[in-house]
Amino acid sequence: MADTMTARDRARDRARAGAARAPADGRRLARRRKRRLAVVFVLPALLLLGALVVYPVLFSFGRSLFDADGDRFVGAGNYVAIVQDPATLKAIRNSAIWVVVAPTLLTGLGLMLAVLTEKVRWATAFKLVLFLPMAVSFLAAGIIFRLAYEQDPDRGVLNAAVVGVHDSFGDAAAYPTARAREGQGLTGSAGGPYSTEGTVRPGRSVSLGLIGVAPDAVPAAAKAAAAAAPATDGIGGVVYLDFAPGGAGVPGRIDAGENGLPGMTVEAVRDGRVAASTVSADDGSFRLTGLADGDYTVRLPAANFAAPYQGVNWLGPALVTPAIIGAYLWVWTGFAMVLIGAGLAAIPRDALEAARMDGASEGQIFRKITVPLLSPVLTVVFVTLVINVMKVFDLVYIIAPGPVQEEANVLATRMWLVSFGGGNDQGLGSALSVVLLLLVVPAMVFNIRRFRRSGA
User: Fold this and answer.
1) In what ranges is there compositional bias, type Basic and acidic residues (predicted)?
2) Do 252 and 293 share a domain, yes or no?
3) Model-level pTM?
4) Are 332 and 410 in a shared domain?
């Protein structure tokens, strides 16, 4: 009987164990089905990732171990060439400038604008306007800023503004193209100054004829040239355009139809010092008075002939990299502002109100509450911009003119130029691409870990 009960108990226990295993087996089967289904959906993405990312990376690394033609194995020779090539080292230096300056400025601007937009009435419209450049491709943005940075003020909007402000506070040269006619009593080189060949004593007058002034460059107030009568203690004369309409006049003589040149500075010089100075009238006449008896040289100083101010050489060797970074800021400021603004909206308002109730100023709230609470968002924005800056290519290639391209190159443009832009050394170009990848990967890993921690 005992044996029968024992067998019965064992059968019951086996039945219970089987019943307990059935749900577990079902769950395992369900998990397997989910994994298989996930693999089915992920497989196309993995194939694309392998074809477009993994294979090119492996191929580039293998190609970097061969020479320019790809026939001879050189090992680490291309990587050694990177640190020995001055142009490549300059590109690395420029990339370092980009990585330090651009993300820092963008994060700061984004934070400042995100805070300010919370205090304006039309915050949504303001954000939309700042975000609009993100809809513009780098190619279009590069063309826009290439035109804006033109040296010619008639074409470059930035230099037009700079020249306008400069000319508002400083007088422009009266006649930058004027020059003396040879053999007519004036000596000097192009651009001035021009002086009388001989000396002049008080009580005498001189005629200073110039050429090279276009008719439309003569001021509208100019009148027919007429010499001023000298005083007994001074020198009189006239500064005029020694060119009659149709070329009918006699050089060195005031003819009918020849106009005076108003606004021309005239000086009387003795022993290397300016004894008297005046400005010519509308008819070109002038009087230098208060002169002691003696011999003087009448001079037209170089300020009359200085070339007009042409503004800032934005695309010169010294400023080309900051100028391109400025274009990059224009495109990406809206991106930083929107991301930081989203983080700012998630800050608990109770903490801010409590700080205000405790008497904290807005500056203290910003430094000690807002910024610390936003630090995770600021870090993500900064690292994302670092990754993007590492790969910048379009703006540098389009904005930098050919003569200063080498001064503006970053790693991406240098890689392209070495491989396809005339260098035809795909071994060195592949090595540069591998270096660029190795520089970007740590920032990407940091960002991914940051996202995972914030998601957890």
Assistant:
1) 1-16
2) yes
3) 0.74
4) yes
